[in-house]
Amino acid sequence: MNLKSQLLKVKDLILWDENARFPDKYYNSDEKEMINYFLSKPKFELKKFIEEIVKDFDLPQLEKLVVWNNDNNLIVIEGNRRLSAYKLLINPNLSDNVKLKDSISLLKKSIDINENFELECIVGLNESECLRYVDRKHIKKNNEVSWEDGERTNYDVRRGNKNENNLVKIGIIKKVRELEIPEKMKDKVLGKGFVTNFFRTITTTPAKKKYGYRIIENGELLINYRDFDKELKVIIYNLLNKEDFQGNKIDSRTLNKKESIEKYIESIKPLDSQKVDKEIQNNTTEDLFGKQSYNLVDSKIDNNLKTKSLPTPVGLFFPSRIPFAINNSSLRILYDELKEIPVKKFPNATHDLLRSFLECSLVFYLKEVSEYDKIKKNSSHNPKLGEMLTHIINGSCKNINDHNLIATLRQIKSDFDQPYSLERMHMINHNEHFTSKERDVRATWAQLESLFKIILNSVE
User: Fold this and answer.
1) What global pTM score does this model have?
2) In terms of Cα–Cα distance, which of 413, 322, 379, 419 is closest to 21?
3) What is the pLDDT of residue 195?
4) Three-state DSSP string of the chain
């Protein structure tokens, strides 16, 4: 591997127009156009990023840019948003927004930065080697594990922010961990998908009023309600099962107002904890060695979902759900392979074939509706998959105007770190270090199914 660390001047670094964040129309665009694209999209938070850079300007650079030295053209493969922020600080006139330009100019006065400012970079002569860093950061999330709500609260308190809400949260988490319920239930309710509703229920005014929370001098939470542990157990069980013992739904919609939370909190009785104990006992199994295991997925809600769910095909789909009604023998062969290939056994082959099938099907379809030539930039240009999807997303395809489908395709193009993304499909096709799993392929198909229902049927 021929990669090395090097200090490079910001002015010499080039934004990568094939970066997944840029739509296809930005290929071969100039620097200013690409920077203003970043500025135009609130999700990139570029102004906030610039403010953070200025605020922490005295700190050493944490993340290096990854640069491809392509015949002395220093193309930034990873770190285009960061590079844009520094280029704007050096030259605020790159912004077309006058108000923002003035704001950046003001920020610039507080730091020492000019056109000779340098950034730490990892430089390589081979594009594919540089792209491995993109895989690590955006596909594998740099192998980091995000903090959950309780961990963020712990950090906040340990950094000195000992406000009452944080201390109440930490006290409640401690109470949860001390309960005599399976650890699986504790982890689930304090984890992603449930913790927001849990804290909304247990730390807001109705709960404080009923249970009498009080923070004493050492920051410890005191609770004046004698049967709090019993009712806490009930709340956890109800949230995990998404309904109370009267059959009422318990979720983000039913617990989105103070009045509804108060009604639910007041409905809980200590004796309900006996029902929880019984349900836990019914769902606890013991193996040959006496080890007990609580089967959380056997709850009522999950059983209902299992009963209503469709069976999973061996291949990617059931033909009855995705009929093939176009006159193209080559596409028919690909279609037959996709419906018969064992996805579980051959996920990578399926993902690769799915991408090819999507691209070829779109080419056929857009030619049939006389729109393929509208996408071509010149007579020798063959539109890429991303360009054809952009044509549909922009509302230029007369026969595909379903708002939900278009929104889904927009996700496929922009959510580059998701298993169903266009970027993932490119990776499985072009990157020798990337592999796929069955759930990734099926997630991709689920997003594309509605599109295939249109393009695989006969064109009027």
Assistant:
1) 0.44
2) 413
3) 86
4) CCEEEEEEEHHHEEECCCCCCCCHHHCCCCHHHHHHHHHHCHHHCHHHHHHHHHHCCCCCCCCCEEEEEECCEEEEEECHHHHHHHHHHHCHHHCCCHHHHHHHHHHHCCCCCCCCCEEEEEEECCHHHHHHHHHHHHHCHHHCCCCCHHHHHHHHHHCCCCCHHHHHHHHHHHHHHHCCCCHHHHHHHCCCCCHHHHHHHHCCHHHHHHHCEEECCCCCEEECCCCHHHHHHHHHHHHHHCECCCCCECCCCCCCCHHHHHHHHHHCCCCHHHHHHHHHHHCEEECCCCCEEECHHHCHHHHHHHHHCCCCCCCCCCCCCCCCCCCCHHHHHHHHHHHHCCCCCCHHHHHHHHHHHHHHHHHHHHHHCCCHHHHCCCCCCCCCHHHHHHHHHCCCCCCCCCHHHHHHHHHHHHCCCCCCCHHHHHHHHHCCCCCCCHHHHHHHHHHHHHHHHHHCCCCC
Name the pairing type of β-strands 292-294 and 284-286.
antiparallel
Using alpha carbons, select from 236, 242, 240, 241 the residue that is nearest to residue 268. Answer: 236
Choose between 151 and 323: higher pLDDT: 323
pLDDT digits (tens, 9 = 90+) for 86-140: 999 999 999 999 999 999 999 999 999 998 999 999 999 888 888 888 877 776 6
Asked if residue 47 lies in contact with residue 108, where contact means CB atoms within 8 angstroms, the answer is no
Count of alpha carbons within 13 Å of 363, Cβ hemisphere only? 15
**From residue 190, how far is each of 151, 239, 240 by CA, in Å?**
10, 11, 10
> CA–CA distance from 262 to each of 6, 64, 190, 200, 351 (Å)?
59, 50, 21, 11, 49
For the stretch 18-52, pLDDT in tens is 887 887 777 778 899 999 999 988 888 999 999 99
Model confidence pLDDT, tens digit, residues 106-115:
999 999 999 8
pLDDT in tens, 220-248: 899 999 999 999 999 999 999 888 988 88
Q: Which two tokens stand for residue 19?
A: 């970066």
Q: Contact 266/231 with Cβ under 8 angstroms? A: no
pLDDT in tens, 393-404: 988 888 888 888
Closest by Cα among 359, 377, 240 to 300: 240
Per-residue pLDDT at 194 exceeds 90: no
Half-sphere exposure of 401 (CA within 13 A, CB side): 3
Q: What are phi and psi of 408, to 5 degrees?
A: -65, -45
Measure CA of the first residue to CA of the last residue in the chain; give whole Å.
Answer: 54
What's the Cα-to-Cα distance from 456 to each of 74, 360, 366, 448, rounded to whole Å? Answer: 43, 11, 12, 12
